[in-house]
Every structure is written in structure tokens, then in C-alpha cells.
Amino acid sequence: MPGAIIKGSYDPGATSPVANIKNNQIATGTDKFKGIDIVKSVNCRINCNFIENIPISMRFNESCIGTILRQNNMTEYDVAVQIDNAEIGPQKQVNSSGQDEPTNNEWHDAGGSMRVDGITQSGLTFKWHRDPSGPAKLIPNPANFGVIILEDDYLSFVDCDDVSSRIGRDELFGQTVDDSLEFMDNINENNYLAKIIAFQAMENDTTIIYQSTSRDTAYINFYNTIKSTNIGLFDSVYKMAIDAATIGSAISINASIADTNDLEYYRKSVNAIFLNTIAQNLHLDASDSTFCNEVSELPFHVAGDAIFSAAVMIGKEIHPQSVAARMMSVENTQIVPEIKTPGFNIVPNPTNSKFHIQGRTEELKLIQILSSEGKTIKEFTTTLNKDIPVEELKPGIYYVKLTEKSGSSYFLKLVIVR
After folding, report:
1. Is the dihedral of CA 256, 191, 14, 332 positive or negative?
2. How would you classify residue 39: left for phi > 0, otherwise alpha for psi between -120 and 50, otherwise beta?
3. What is the pLDDT of residues 177-220, one digit of tens each?
4. Is 97 exposed, middle or buried (0-12, 13-18, 19+ CB in 10 A)?
5. Is the distance from CB of 6 to CB of 329 less than 8 angstroms?
6. How many helices (H) and strands (E) does the chain have?
7. Is 138 helix (H, G, I), strand (E, B) or coil?
8. Within a 10 A sphere around the Cβ of 77, how many other Cβ atoms?
9. CA–CA separation, 58 vs 60, rounded Å?
């Protein structure tokens, strides 16, 4: 579980950030596996947070384009910044002279941990700006350099209250507008989703389109073209659906859309259920509820943000995707339970069949084995110094969560090999 979470914040053209997480202190607690978890939330500002002794300091999933990490302090982790099939864009700020600058994040680890890891949605790298002459704590290395490329710049000043964009439109949307995006998997679906994000950004902020440069023509053409497609029609349905006076028009337009892919099929189907029930203060029948539940379980590249709408209609919380407000701020919260030296070890580690816990096992009441995503796979009420079997688990990295009788919890990394 995360200490702070933003999921489904979806206003890519907002002139201010759709989510602003700043000045938090997040440390080991009873249920913290990730410090900050960002899912499909574009244009976020993650400024000046202190995240300590949590396996994954920050995790990003799906499109988080335009998100900037500034002067965050990450200490004692297995992975500080986990890019989980996500896009977040170049990590930099631009000063008043138009020069690129680093964002001064700090990594503090004892070695053997990854500062940036994972895989981007496109399979391509993005730039992480750093001052090569600065201290090692300001440089994201070690890292997975199949995810990031280090870009050299001069040390900069970071204002924790700075929520400006500082990233040009071409860096955010240029490849989408030019139809030059490249994806490794789900190529058609990811290109379609990228067009939705760019179009909605332009709908909300026309300064993305009109900047009095030669590139305006490309943006104007892209916007007009997409507005005439099903993406534009679905946007019209969404806007009409929030006004009781135009529900009838929304129903007619939605019904007229000829879906061309799974994303459009599920969007149209979920729209129809909402417009003919919830929007008119009517209840869903059993068939509609079953369908919404099925949609809410689909991957994002299959059903898009229809999974959010479906989940809301049946009052369901979904993971890793769930609905959140379009604009939100998490600021100055204190999530700092007592921190102790764990005093536990896994033996043997790595292992191929079993392990046991060394340390103050008499103080433990529960042992849980978690996947790399934090899902509970197995759990045991403790028996002192007895072996825990893992023969049935696939090789890979897992986490063992130890919960004491006092309620305190600790995470240990477990490696299974064959």
C-alpha cells in the first residue's frame, strides 16, 4: 500500500497541475509498500517529499506524461523510482533564460539498490537531467539505462511551491502530433490512447495549439482531425452527460458512434449504461452490474478509462487503476510511524525451495510473501525458526512482510532462483 496515491487524475491540459504532492514525510509503517503511487495521472508535480525505508519510493504506471519530480529525498529502498509500463517524460525544469536544469532529487542508499528501474510504455528511454559535477546523491546511478539517458546540465535551484510546467509542447505531444510515436507492445491501442491525451490537453488549453510559431499548423491539423473522429465524439458525449438538459443528445451521439476498436467498444458500452441509468437516477440491473464488473477488471490498454467509469457505477475500488478526483492536492501530511532497526534476516537468500527468518521471531505474529507489485501471495502465522516453503513460486524478486505483535511491520527482499 502507498503512503500517498494519485490514480486517474486526468486533465492533461490544465494550466496548473492535476495533482500536487509536496512536503510529505513518508516512512516505514504497518502497510507501506510504496511511498508514492501515481497511476494514469498526467501533469503531476512531485516536490520535496522525504521517503524513507520503503521498498519502492515512487511508482509510476500508465501515462503520467508531463509529471515532474523535484527535490525529493529517497532513502533506503530497493527501487527508488519504479517506471511500471509508464510514460512520464523528461525530468528537468527550464529556467527563465530557457535553459534546461536538473530537478535536484536526492538518492541515499547503501549500495545494491536501483535508483531508477522498470520499463516505459513505449519501450523507449527518456532523459533525466543531472549536474555531472554535483555530488553522487544527485545522480540517478545505478539505474536501468534502458529506461533513462543521463543528460548533463548545471545545478539549479528548486522551489518546492513551483508547480509550473516548464516543458515545451513538442516534448509532451510532438511525437503524437507528428504520428511518430513508437511502442513495443499494443501498438495501435497505445497510439490511440496517446491521441486521446493530446486531444484532451488541447481542448482544455488552446495555448498548446496556438503559440505563433511554424509548428502551429501541425497542432491545428491534429486537433481538427481528432475532433472529427470518434475521440472527439466521445468527448462531446462526456461533456453533455454532466448536464441533465443534454442527456438526450448525449444518448443519441453515443448510439451513433460506430466503434472501431476494443477501446471504443467498451467506452461506448459503459457510456450507454451510465446515460440510461445513473444519469437518470435509475439503478443498474444485474446484467449491467456484471458487465461493469467485467470491464473494471480489464487492462487499461484494452478498455481505457472506461474501467474507471465502470468501477464507479458499481462502487468498486480497483487496483492498480481506480477513480480519483480530476484535481487534487496532497500536502503536508505526516505519515511517520516509529522506525526501528528491523533485526531480521532471510536465510538462505537467494533460495530455491524454502527459507526461514532469523532474528526476534518470538515478537512476530504474521509473515507474508508479497509479489514485486505488493500483492499478498502467501501468509503464515509465525512458528519459530521453521522453514517456509516456496517451491511453487516462480523465480524472481519477492518481498517478505514481517508484522510484529506490536503492529510494527518490516519488509525484506527475497530472491528465488532455480
Report:
1. positive
2. beta
3. 999 887 766 788 888 988 998 898 888 788 889 999 999 999 99
4. exposed
5. no
6. 10, 25
7. helix
8. 25
9. 7
